[in-house]
Design a protein that fits this description.
The protein is built from 3 helices and 4 strands. By secondary structure, the protein is α+β, with helices and mostly antiparallel strands. The radius of gyration is 16 Å and the shape is globular. The structure holds zinc ion (2 copies).
């Protein structure tokens, strides 16, 4: 049995998962954190581009990306995943629109930590002294 799902391709930045990547659906693009707006509040298929506008810390371990649809302006949020680009996350989190989830002066330090790792999984560990 061969499951050949159509590969995800980000309509915004063109990102595609590596061949053999286990996941088949990507609620949002881990490279630019954009997504496609599926059903809106009225249950209609929208198809607009969901642009990341902020990050909010739901709980200590759960961060969500706040997205806004470029077509219908509906706001939605999507849980962040370990695949998400830490650099992109930081750049969105630092936007003045939302409260940064960490002190701004920590930014450079964080970028270094995350840049070297390429994943966000160990981040909390680093911060907890
Ligand atoms: Zn993308
Ligand atoms: Zn929409």
């Amino acid at each position: 049995m061969k499951i050949e799902k159509e590969r995800y391709r980000c309509p915004v930045c063109g990102w595609t998962p590596r061949t053999g990547e286990g996941r088949k659906d990507w609620p949002h693009c881990p490279n630019c954190l954009s997504g496609i707006h599926g059903k809106n509040e009225e249950g209609l298929e929208c198809g607009g581009i969901l642009e990341p506008v902020g990050i909010w810390v739901k709980t200590d371990k759960e961060w969500e990306i706040i997205q806004r649809c470029s077509l219908c302006q509906e706001m939605t949020s999507d849980p962040m995943s370990a695949d998400d680009s830490p650099v992109k996350v930081l750049s969105i989190a630092s936007k003045p629109l939302s409260e940064p989830p960490f002190p701004v002066e920590k930014m450079e330090e964080l970028t270094k930590i995350m840049g070297g790792r390429g994943d966000i999984g160990g981040y909390y560990h680093e911060q907890r002294k």
